[in-house]
Amino acid sequence: MTHSSGGAPSPADFRLDALILAAGRGTRMPSPRPKVLQTLLGETMLGLVYASVASLPEVDRVLTLVGHEADMVRAEAARCARRGPRPAGESRGEALCVEQTEQLGTGHALMCALPALEEGCGHVLVVNGDTPLLPSAALSRFVSGARGADLAFATLCLDDPGAFGRVVRDKAGGVAAIVEARDYDEARHGRDPHEINAGVYLLRVETARRLLPRLTNRNTSGEYYITDLAALAVAEGMSVLGLPVPADSGAWLGVNTPAELAAAEEHLRRRRVAELLSAGVLLHAPESVRVSPFAVVEPGAELCGPCEIYGDSRVAGGALVESHCVLCNAEVGPGARVRSFCHLESAEVGPACQVGPYARLRPGAVMEENSHAGNFVEMKKARLGKGSKANHLTYLGDAEVGPGVNVGAGTITCNYDGKNKHRTVIEAGAFIGSNTALVAPVTVGENALVGAGSVITKDVPREVLAVGRGRQVNLPRRA
Ligand code: UD1
Ligand code: CA
Q1: Is the CB of 20 under 6 A from ligand 1?
Q2: Which of 201, 198, 161 is closest to 182 using CA atoms?
Q3: Pairing mode, if any, of strands 372-384 and 354-355?
Q4: Radius of gyration over every alpha carbon of the chain, rounded to an integer in angstroms
Q5: How many CB atoms are located within 10 Å of the residue 74 CB?
Q6: Which 3 state secondary structure label does DSSP give 474?
């Protein structure tokens, strides 16, 4: 085979697979969760890496190498694949995982993936699963620069190169080797170059096939290192490129410890805040605004820190989210106001709605246009119709509330009988007096009025007044 003579393929036909190394335990992160499932702004490291590589136009398939807690990591990879972006060669929802049953090092990881890679298009972009900040634009530039080499890897220069692998170059500036920090010996390798390996590699599958059998684990860690491929490739006369990446080095740093995770999360938070500001989102106290890279906040929306907007949340232009709110997979429509201290999870707030302060919208809560859910109101699998109001101290669970309804203070839908959940229906224009218990299944008809303090166990027909409580009696006081 002609391993180094091919030259750069034209961009149109340059295809590659991406391989995310996510099998390691992460011994420096003392947590029962595998390291790649640790989160930044609510997103796993794996999810961030996955999205970044899957969005590259050259990428056909994304393979995830799993091992430690394989089932958990596989499940997350499947979620990533369903969520998108979808690589060119994958049908939606499909996560391709390869198992490394024993974690014998990053070189061994590549060996485990080789059979799957041989079914692919000849090139592979290998990315450490603990490098969550890689922006796809920078990755794309790396891929362009690396195209045509037998083996290329991203490098950066650090004042404090710490535990990263060092890039050793020859006098002409070509790559001689990557030497792991623990194995680095100034007497043998020369002065510390401060240039490190970022853990992002582009190689021909053929390079891996030829060189992997020659890796050994004779080093300080007793592991097979992917990084040893560099010196092996040089010895074979292959083209090996160490490509320096731009100085925003934080974006390329691996995360190994809780301190590094916190620093990476802050880096991502700032990057997101800068994007939102330049897109025209209004931010108060931006230093405490936390928005997931997957959440959409439209220009003209207004957020007050501290607030947290996670998952696939969406905040429309003209909406206001006041301080101390947490949104997760929530939608807030145009002109809506979410007042302080609200918690919204998988909930929908329609245009011009008012929520809170201190409201909790749980999964399946839907507020239609111009409806109000005020303080200490909780909704779950419940719909509040257009213009309806539940302004104080209310629980609406498994409920369907029509338009123009007034739900008085302290109203509770009693949806659970100890075994099953039942639905409550309140039709258009009904008025529910304060402190009413609606024992489901039950329906309150259109324009009906329920007297305060009622316990409603039977359906209320439309247009009637229902009172379900002990009658007041006024008796003479005993002496
Ligand atoms: C690795 C590089 C180092 C580089 C650094 C950049 C090696 C030998 N060293 O070091 O040169 O500077 O990344 O961040 O590669 N993994 C597996 N299977 C294994 C071992 C690891 O899938 O058997 C995965 C881990 O889950 C992790 C990634 O590979 O996502 C990197 O492993 P890690 O142990 O963190 O490597 P570093 O010591 O950081
Ligand atoms: Ca690492």
Answers
A1: no
A2: 161
A3: parallel
A4: 29
A5: 16
A6: coil
Place of tokens 């301190």: 259
Name the DSSP class of 36. Answer: G
Distance CA 117, CA 126 (A): 11
- Tokens, residue 167: 């890039």
Pocket test for ligand 1, best of 21, 101, 104, 106 (most atoms within 8 A of CB): 106
Identify which of 364, 390, 387, 293 has the alpha carbon closest to the alpha carbon of residue 55.
293
Q: Express each pLDDT in 420-465 by its tens digit.
A: 999 999 999 999 999 999 999 999 999 999 999 999 999 999 999 9
Quickly list H helices, 197-286.
205-211, 228-235, 258-279
pLDDT tier at 385, thresholds 50, 70, 90:
very high
The rounded Å distance from CA 108 to ligand 1 centre is 11
For β-strands 331-332 and 314-315, DSSP reports them as: parallel
Q: Are the CB atoms for 185 and 106 separated by under 8 Å?
A: no
pTM of the model: 0.94
**Which atom belonging to ligand 1 lies closest to the Cα atom of 199?**
6
Check whether the bond before 85 is cis (ω within 30° of 0): yes
Centre of ligand 2 from the C-alpha of residue 198, in Å: 9
Tell me the sheet residues that pair with 384: 367, 401
325-328 and 59-66: which strand pairing? Answer: unpaired
User: Can you read off the two tokens belonging to residue 285?
Assistant: 């106290």
Tell whether ligand 1 has an atom less than 6 A from the beta carbon of residue 129.
yes
Contacts of 204 (CB under 8 A, 6+ apart): 3, 122, 123, 150, 151
* pLDDT of amino acid 247: 65
The Cα 301–Cα 282 span in angstroms is 6
Catalytic sites, residue numbers: 392
Residue with the two structure tokens 């995830």: 64
Protein residue with its CA nearest to atom 3 in ligand 1: 165
Dump pLDDT digits (tens) for 295-324.
999 999 999 999 999 999 999 999 999 999
Strand positions, DSSP E, 110-174 = 123-128, 151-157, 166-169
The predicted pLDDT at position 12 comes to 65
Residue 78 near residue 111 (C-beta atoms within 8 A)? no
Angle between helices 45-54 and 70-83 (to 10 degrees): 40
- Whether residue 180 has its Cβ less than 6 Å from ligand 1: yes
pLDDT of 2: 37
Ligand 1 neighbour 164 (Cβ under 6 A): yes
Structure tokens at 123: 């090139």
Residue 21 Cβ inside 6 Å of ligand 1? The answer reads: yes
